[in-house]
Amino acid sequence: MKQTLIKILKLLSPYKWWMLLASLMGFLTIGSSIGLLMTSAYVIAKAALHPHIGELSIAIVGVRFFGISRGLLRYAERLFSHDVTFNLLAKFRVWFFKSIEPLVPSKTGKFTSGDLLTRVVSDVESLEHIFIRVLSPPIIALLVGILVSVIFAFFDISFAIAFLIPYLLAGIVIPFLTYKLSAKIGEDIISLRSRLTELSLDGIEGKNELISFGKLETHNREFNDTNNKLIKLQRRMNLISGMNESLIGLMMNIAIIAIFITAVPLVKSGAISGISLSVLALGTMAAFEAVLPIPLAIQYLNNSIKAGNRLFQITEQTIEDKKRFWITSDAESFPNVLIGNLSKKDRFRVEASRNDTNLTKQRYLKNKKKSNLKLKGENVELKNINFSYRKNEEVLKEISIKINTKEKIAIIGGSGAGKSSIINLLLNFWKINNGSISIDNIDYNEMSEEDIRSVYSTIPQKIFLFSDTIKGNLLIAKPDATDSELWSVLQKAELKKFVEALPNKLDTWIGNQGKQLSGGEQKRIAIARAILKDSNIFICDEITADLDSVTEMNILNTIHSVTKEKSLVYITHRLVDMDKFDSIYLLENGKIVSAGIHSELLINSEQYKKYFEI
Cβ-count burial of 127 within 10 angstroms (0-12 exposed, 13-18 middle, 19+ buried)? Predict the structure, then answer.
């Protein structure tokens, strides 16, 4: 908990002075409320004795001053605190997106889409409250407690003690009790909220499967049970909040009674006037406004810590992947919140680079130049690649593949052989354990991710089409493409006649994930999108999976046609048209067991021959 809070506070540090200013405005606002009630009490009590108007003039001015200043300070406090809150929310969102973007898809695969959505939305928004509801209230309550204690001490030190004991109980003991009661509840609420989001997405995206398998009622029952549990826990949390307000109200009344009991002998002896009783009572009531938010702050603190843990669970995975780039390129951009996770040696290198302005500038310019490389993609080479998703579980072993200009290569093998892993490495979705990958004889480590992916047009096995029009889905590859360019790529993908026959043509909405289209039509949209990108190397990953044989042959013919002047990396477990490839690599258990052209492999490789016959 402590470490998570420190990390969150480090993220807040750029706004520390604005937060301090907002807290000061909050303190002055409550201070004005205290002044307003105390001066008003004095005017009313004194006026009952029918004094000369001159005796009330200062108090009347005080009422006017505190009344006006309270409104102005409340506005200033809201202005500053909400400005800080919205800036922090923006910062948290940008920070999390920048952290998660390099992880996709390499280290987000173990998280469901619903869980990720909850972290991106709900957990980030939970941190929004970290200042206005968690940090600011205790600061304001502390300052108000000091102020009122000093004022009451002017009357008599016993009044300050009578006020301070219930005030501390309301500001410390009750919040601690709140924390103990709500800690587990807050954690369960976050978990249930995440699960509810997962069930919602599953119910929407998988409704056809749920209906066809007769599981819709079961799914709805689980959804309702989860929702009811969440409602019950939220009700319990609200009851705890209500209990807090009652207990703080009790402490306030105890403080007033204690002050009255303390004041009686002093009034009898003439040490203070009876008018002071009303002044002290109303001042006490106004002061307790400062401790009302503290129990709620403890609840929000617990929720923020849990949300922070869930966010850091993802973002801290970036440390090892980003560390090398930041240290060797732009140390100035290395986030402070992550420096503590580096080794002593690496931390020294980051700080040394930060202190050397010229060195940092040179590295920045060097990387800026590299991020604008005009790569042709004339050759790609994987050399002695070893790779594993988890320690001690090697997926690829000593893989060496070379892709030359306009060369067509096929990578074949059964399920789990490591074919798709090679694609993930080519696209830099994952980092190799050892070996090297290069484009145009430039190592991947010397290029930005944008440069690497600029040379590839990819058609994945699982095509994702956005809930948009045909045009909108194509423009992802080239946002400034004209309609004539779109029709041209549709023609090459053999989809032009189909789209022309649609009532809205390019503006036809294709449904959620393209479900208004057939499997073959979805594949052709993906092919058209890849053609529009116009990269020199096409990557096709099991694109004929789940298609009938006629559609498969049509798709294959289209691919060979559009890549006639391109390089092609074709991943498949179905050995169709193998004679059209310049090189074929057969993978088994992450190793290349055979390589060559189709006719040679049939003669020289028993593994390939056996696989081909199967």
Answer: buried
Rounded Cα distance between 357 and 334, Å, is 14
Q: Is the pTM of this model over 0.85?
A: no
Rounded Cα–Cα distance for residues 283 and 267 (Å): 18
Q: What is the pLDDT of residues 129-165, one digit of tens each?
A: 777 777 788 889 999 999 999 999 888 899 899 999 9
Q: Indicate the Cα dihedral angle 212, 218, 220, 221, nearest 10°.
A: 170
Task: Give the angle 258-261-262 at the CA atoms, nearest 5°.
Answer: 85
- Report all structural domains of the chain as residue ranges with CATH numbers, in order of start: 2-315 (1.20.1560.10), 320-370 (no CATH), 380-613 (3.40.50.300)
Instruction: Return the exposure string of 319-334: e unless at least 16 CB atoms fall within 10 Å of the residue's CB, then b.
Output: beebbebbbebbbeeb
Side chain identity, residue 46 = K
Element (H, E) at 112: none
DSSP alpha helix (H) spans, 156-215 = 157-168, 174-205, 207-212
Which residues is 554 bridged to in the sheet?
A: none
pLDDT per residue as tens digits for the range 368-389: 445 556 777 778 888 888 888 7
Helix and strand numbers, DSSP H then E, in the chain:
26, 10
C-alpha to C-alpha distance for 30 and 28, rounded to whole angstroms = 6
Which DSSP state fits 586? E
**Alpha-carbon span 467 to 49, nearest angstrom:** 77
Half-sphere exposure of 294 (CA within 13 A, CB side): 23
